[in-house]
Amino acid sequence: MTQSVVVQVGQCGNQIGCCFWDLALREHAAVNQKGIYDEAISSFFRNVDTRVVGDGGSISKGKICSLKARAVLIDMEEGVVNEILQGPLRDVFDSKQLITDISGSGNNWAVGHKVFGSLYQEQILEKLRKSAEHCDCLQCFFIIHSMGGGTGSGLGTFLLKVLEDEFPEVYRFVTSIYPSGEDDVITSPYNSILAMKELNEHADCVLPIDNQSLFDIISKIDLMVNSGKLGTTVKPKSLVTSSAGAVKKRHQKPFDAMNNIVANLLLNLTSSARFEGSLNMDLNEISMNLVPFPQLHYLVSSLTPLYTLADVNIPTRRLDQMFSDAFSKDHQLIRADPKHSLYLACALMVRGNVQVSDLRRNIERLKPSLQFVSWNQEGWKTSLCSVPPVGHSHSLLALANNTCVKPTFMELKERFMRLYRKKAHLHHYLQIEGMEESCFMEAVSSLSGLVEEYNQLDATKSMPVEDLPRLSIAV
Amino acid sequence: MSIVTVQLGQCGNQIGFEVFDALNTDSHCPQGLCSKRENEAYQASCKERFFSEEENGVPIARAVLVDMEPKVTSQTLSKAAQSGRWKYGQHSCFCQKQGSGNNWAYGYSVHGPRHEEAIMNLIQKEVEKCDSLSGFFIIMSMAGGTGSGLGAFVTQNLQDQYSNSLKMNQIIWPYGTGEVIVQNYNSVLTLSHLYRSSDALLVHENDALHKICAKLMNIKQISFSDINQVLAHQLGSVFQPTYSVEGSCHYRRNPLGGFKDPALYTSWLEPIHAVNVWKTQRAFSKYEKSAALVSNSQFLLKPLDTIVGKAWNMFASKAYIHQYTKFGIEEEDFLDSFALLEQVVASYCNL
């Protein structure tokens, strides 16, 4: 079994990270009734004997003593990290695995990337190496950050290059929160585009998520709960969107519900690697199956269910409904239209009491309404994990590599150009050492290149699917 | 004569368990429908083939379990032990921490050489326990990374090291509609390599097994467990002892012998040799009468052609190739594999 390290950068990254660790603890507590430190838990947690001073406290087997998250927390202002360290999860984090500063990045990618990057490079490397040393077999880094700000965006992407150089064999999975159109950070388009270039070049896999989608999901659920539309079947404070019933109680903060969705995404993504099932899917299989060309590694995610249903013994129809939901826009974590765009590949990660026949039946049912690229007409990757998430009997995470991300990126570019044409706020960036106008140009060019690749694939959409002439051999 | 089974990857190990379970259940079945002496001879023959004896009477499967990550093998080992009727050897398992990522190149070029010695040693130990080795039964899937890539590598090694013993590979043909997106690449690479080193390929298609579960057995919610059990039942009835030329009470000594003749490349057989009939009086498991058919026919032509076609389409767009070249499988290797399989397709077509 392998381990993963979570690197949470910036305010957004750390707040989501915090939700993730909370839910992870709760999930493992529910599954691991005897409190034995097993391989599943070790994928994200270390077992430490806190009485031992220094580094010697790691325990690899036996009863759980004290769990420490395999995490590195980075923020250039202290507020968020301090709050975490004073909150109910303080014991979960190793106080040595933090990097903080006081002044913040001022929503400036250049400050995060160039200034703090060079300032903290050594420390970052040191903490990462430490985390890696504590792992028996490190498979993956999960980076959580936002694109619109300064630290998460700038320093978060600086990290990627460091990780690629230092740990070339370890996968870099990035969960990126993209700014919505009404984002209150004026320079978010600059930050996002500059960050995109880094994601293009140094990430193995990116899960783009936008705040607007998360907000819409929460609004819909609130609406349903308050309108009594589903009656008593929807429990308020459901386990997906709130932390009610969590191991550590925290009072609800405004973004908590949204962050919990992202945290659940990460849990479901790794479930088949941590827990058993009849068709396992490890993290390295995600990249292998969903990334046909190195640059095209942006995956649209959709998660279901997003709320708990009261009945436990769900008959077949509801199960099929879960699959339909996963392909509805309401459950996507990014605003996009995959059904009217081209699928390059699609992964279905199922948890709970679902068998291969259920999977196949639903794939057959949904296939006709989806367009797959000509050379990957049956581009489905599936996994079955027997352990359902807490409070549900089954769940489904769909990851799609689909050209529908193109409009999102193009819109981002549009917003960028509107600012850039007027040279608005540019001086904040150019005054940073190492930043020149060419950096902006290169970033735009990188994004254009990506969009062009999607365009070429889209162009094949209307062409008839023909079999190519086969290799002819002399018999 | 004994058969040593090598089970590779999640699929190989899950199936392997069901096969040994079916064999064990059958040999202990009380309704023999034959005389006691015959039943005992049957049991003894079965045991010798697939199990070795332990001090406290629990038979140990003559098997080596290989996987590049630990979840499935530990499950398989404990399921067997829990049954109480048979188990796997304590040290028969080789496993690593990080899987092959559905990457044939990783299974073949990285895991293969890296763990060659350890795996071959384990197999050697199992061989030494046999009085007389009939051959190897290698269970693997084609769609993934370990079963397919590492399986091909191990089969090649077995060919080199034990050239006189028979190697029969049980390969699982994936569902037509994706289990793994790169399954066609993995299948093409596996088949082309196995053709060079295996003596017989016994093929089971997931789609076919699924249909059996649905239509013939009326199972509503079909699980991989159901599918594997159907497969194990079929395999069991093929492998169980049958009469040898000397007549009843003497069971065929070499269970795999009959497979050597119908080679993978066609050769025109005289009608009298075309069908090998193996009989036994003793019933299989709960069934009074059963028949199993193993054939070498054009039946597989269509699935083979389909897989090669799909893989070729994908190859033409160069999709996913970078994942293979990363680990040493170049475009040329793909082309070689395609060429070989096109030849096989042509040969079957020309029958």
TrEMBL record, chain A:
Location in the cell reads: Cytoplasm, Cytoskeleton, Microtubule organizing center, Centrosome
Task: List the keywords (alphabetical).
Answer: Cytoplasm, Cytoskeleton, GTP-binding, Microtubule, Nucleotide-binding
Biological-process GO terms, alphabetical: microtubule-based process
Which part of the chain is the Tubulin/FtsZ GTPase domain?
49-277
Read off the PANTHER family from this record: TUBULIN (PTHR11588)
Subunit and interaction comment:
Found in a complex with TEDC1, TEDC2, TUBE1 and TUBD1.
Instruction: Provide the family line.
Output: Belongs to the tubulin family.
Q: What protein am I looking at?
A: Tubulin epsilon chain
Record organism: Ailuropoda melanoleuca
Q: What is the lineage of its organism?
A: Eukaryota, Metazoa, Chordata, Craniata, Vertebrata
From TrEMBL, chain B:
* Gene3D superfamilies (UniProt xref): Tubulin/FtsZ, GTPase domain
Q: Which GO terms describe its cellular component?
A: centriole; cilium; cytoplasm; microtubule; nucleus
Where is this protein found?
Answer: Cell projection, Cilium; Cytoplasm, Cytoskeleton, Microtubule organizing center, Centrosome, Centriole; Nucleus
- Which SMART domains does this chain map to? Tubulin (SM00864)
List the Gene Ontology MF annotations in alphabetical order: GTP binding; structural constituent of cytoskeleton
Output the GO biological process annotations, alphabetical, semicolon-separated.
cell projection organization; microtubule-based process
Q: Which UniProt keywords apply?
A: Cell projection, Cilium biogenesis/degradation, Cytoplasm, Cytoskeleton, GTP-binding, Microtubule, Nucleotide-binding, Nucleus
Name the domain of life this protein comes from: Eukaryota
Q: What does this protein do?
A: Acts as a positive regulator of hedgehog signaling and regulates ciliary function.
Assembly notes: Found in a complex with TEDC1, TEDC2, TUBE1 and TUBD1.
* Protein name per Swiss-Prot or TrEMBL: Tubulin delta chain
* Naturally occurring in which organism (per UniProt): Ailuropoda melanoleuca
